[in-house]
Amino acid sequence: MFTGIVEELGEVTAVENLGDASRFRLRGPVVTDGAKHGDSIAVNGVCLTVVEHEGDEFTADVMAETLDRSSLGALTVGSRVNLERPTAVGARLGGHIVQGHVDGTGEVLERRPSENWEIVKVSLPAGLARYVVEKGSITVDGISLTVVEAGPDFFTVSLIPTTLELTTLGRKQPGDPVNLEVDIVAKYVERLLASTQGAAR
Questions:
Q1: What is the 8-class DSSP label of residue 176?
Q2: Angstrom distance (rounded) from CA 11 to CA 29
Q3: In the predicted model, what is the mean pLDDT of residues 160-168?
Q4: 119 phi/psi in degrees, rounded to 5
Q5: Would you call 106 exposed, middle or buried from its count of C-beta atoms within 10 A (0-12, 13-18, 19+)?
Q6: What is the pLDDT of residue 200?
Q7: How far, in Å, are 112, 128, 140, 154, 191 from residue 108 at the CA level?
Q8: Which of 128, 131, 146, 159 is the most exposed place for a label (fewest CB within 10 A)?
């Protein structure tokens, strides 16, 4: 489990095409500290498994399903990525509960800078709109954010200078893809209500 609090801005140092998968090598001194084979690290919000670890770099295999359903397929050597290790038991939950299971991808539609923050508008796939509410939580490229406005096919978030400086959202431009994970609580509530209504019939 993750919290959506990005630990560092890493970098893709190599991409190897394996046919029906890809192997990424990524640099991240913070998240690789103490890392070992089999550990999980979230890369732009996608939970990946460490295959190898050497120095401040690690490799992770990404299957075709993940490449197709997330924005990881668009990564190239030099791409910057948000990195986060799983939260430790008993640690503070600084963001919200994040699984690292991407629900879909959106696209940056607009950036509106202000003096002390920036509003970013992101497209929202139709199937996810019902889970996104004003002042609710959403994960964008692995970043736990609060929804400012929730539209039928878009949402907006307000980014403080720290987020702009230390995450990929400070660099994303209109047209760039982003990974989206909606609040898991909303999905469980929907499922439970559907089961309750079905049992009542």
A1: -
A2: 10
A3: 94
A4: -95, 130
A5: buried
A6: 55
A7: 11, 16, 10, 10, 29
A8: 146
